[in-house]
Design brief:
This protein is an alpha/beta fold and 211 residues long. Helix content is 44%, strand content 18%. The chain has one domain: TIM Barrel. Strands 1-2-3-4-5-6-7-8 form an 8-stranded parallel barrel, surrounded by 4 helices. α3 runs parallel beside α4.
């Protein structure tokens, strides 16, 4: 039984790869105030579980905080202990997905092919992270969606930003993971606030334009 991806006004995941614990509180607050509703801290960041714990304490209950680049069941346990509720992985590992389900986490494994997408769906993933979306393109993701359940949540990650939301939204893709277009290590909270506003405004325009 999968844990469903919660309904969100804007299913946008801010990916904070490289963030440091001492920066986390201000940056997470800035993103939440801007309207972001999901935040991922990849495990190849400095002291990621400390940052996740700080973020989880800062965020209200309706904001998903979690980890990316999750590769092992032990990582999932540590994520749970830190208060994370979102598990994002670069691959499909059924043991990792099962452990995350045991902890009632929302899961978003990375897929690229129909084989991986169907395996992740069978393993109970909450949604599928198509990565790198810049290689597949909206048309490639759409082609693979044809063999998936119509209610499966699909997210495009990698090369997607405020510059090209419309291309994906027109194809019916509404969820996105946003990395370097939103955050790069060393950026200030004020710089991130500007990027977050641009991102959200562009997303809203794309969705409204698609009807």
């Amino acid at each position: 039984m999968s844990i469903p991806f919660p309904p969100m006004q804007r299913p946008l995941v801010a990916i904070l790869r490289g963030i440091k614990p001492e920066e986390t509180s201000d940056i997470v607050r800035t993103l939440i105030e801007a309207g972001m509703t999901a935040i991922e801290i990849p495990l190849n960041s400095p002291e990621p579980f400390r940052s996740i714990e700080i973020a989880a304490k800062r965020a209200p209950a309706d904001v998903l905080i979690g980890a990316g680049t999750v590769l092992t069941a032990a990582d999932v346990d540590r994520l749970h202990d830190a208060g994370g509720r979102l598990m994002v992985s670069p691959n499909v590992d059924v043991d990792v997905l099962a452990r995350a389900r045991d902890h009632a986490m929302v899961t978003l494994p990375g897929v690229f092919s129909p084989t991986e997408a169907l395996l992740a769906a069978r393993a109970g993933a909450s949604g599928l992270k198509f990565f790198p979306a810049s290689v597949l393109g909206a048309s490639g993701i759409t082609a693979i969606r044809a063999v998936l359940s119509p209610d499966m949540m699909i997210a495009a990650v990698g090369g997607v930003s405020d510059q090209n939301f419309a291309e994906y939204v027109k194809a019916g893709i509404r969820a996105f993971g946003l990395g370097s277009s939103l955050y790069k290590p060393g950026m200030t909270a004020a710089e991130i606030a500007v990027r977050a506003k641009l991102t959200i405004d562009a997303y809203d325009r794309a969705v409204q334009g698609a009807g």
